[in-house]
Amino acid sequence: MAAVGMVLGLVMLWLMSFIVNAVSPSFNGKSDMVSATKLMAYASTPSWIGGLIAPFLGPVGGLVSLAAIAYVVYLIYTGIRPVMEVPAEKVAGLTVVIILIYIVLSMILTMFIGAMLITSLFGGAMMAGATSI
To answer: Helix 60-84 to helix 33-53 angle, to the nearest 10 degrees?
Structure first.
């Protein structure tokens, strides 16, 4: 599951880069996939590091994860203007759109992982053996 989570994390990074690239012109920013990927890779780094460190910190790990998420939002907010060349008055709006899209995409991927887990636990040979005589 850890390997699947890592792969899905990279897929999420690519999808968010694609979405930032597509949405940026609506906020008078440039459309450049390389710049969008740079922005999302740089901004995602704290959450990846927090995800690696948090399990070893026990109850404080949750706070570290929340701090990492807050820092990701800050990095997106501060990075949009120089990287995607979005005007200053539209940075906050684009940041909110990116965060909302990220939340929805995360929920979809979480449901996908949950469906995979349920299918692996209750599907296939186990269920076939339970229903055969």
So the answer is: 170
Q: How confident is the model at residue 116 (pLDDT cuts 50, 70, 90)?
A: confident
Domain ranges of the chain: 14-121
- For residues 28 and 87, what is the distance between their CA atoms, to the nearest angstrom? 7
CB contact at 8 A, 25 and 84: no
Between these two residues, 125 and 6, which has the higher pLDDT value? 6
The candidate with the shortest Cα–Cα distance to 16, out of 73, 96, 98, is: 98
| Helices and strands (H and E) in the chain: how many | 5, 0
| Residue 24 CB neighbour total at 10 angstroms | 25
Measured between alpha carbons, how far is residue 108 from residues 13, 54, 113 in Å?
A: 14, 23, 9
Name the pTM for this structure: 0.79
Gyration radius (Cα) of the chain, Å: 19
pLDDT tens, 18-60?
999 999 999 999 999 999 999 999 999 998 888 888 888 888 9
Q: Which residues of 25-59 are buried (b: 16+ CB within 10 A; e: fewer)?
A: eebebeebeebbbebbeebbebbeebbeebeeeee
